[in-house]
Write a structure and sequence with these properties.
Mean pLDDT: 90
Strand content: 35-45%
Strand order of the largest sheet: 4-3-2-1-5
Number of strands: 5
Helix content: under 10%
Shape: globular
Low-confidence stretches: none
Largest sheet: 5 strands, antiparallel
């Protein structure tokens, strides 16, 4: 898994009724885009994550020219 600053991590709920949780990558702490990542959640708190198989990276879109 590789991410860049500004990408979003989506952690999928693992049980029925648990919602997906999305956070923004604010710092890549590993080499060449690898984990761990410092992420910011929608409520403003930050955490360091090493995403598992239940996570997906949504890459920021490139600006169109």
């Amino acid at each position: 898994m590789r991410a860049s600053k500004g990408d979003h991590l989506v952690q999928h709920g693992r049980v029925v009724g648990q919602h997906d949780q999305e956070s923004e990558v604010v710092e890549v702490m590993g080499q060449e885009g690898n984990p761990p990542y410092r992420v910011r959640f929608q409520d403003g708190h930050e955490a360091i994550m090493s995403p598992g198989p239940d996570c997906q990276v949504k890459h920021k879109e490139e600006p169109q020219r």
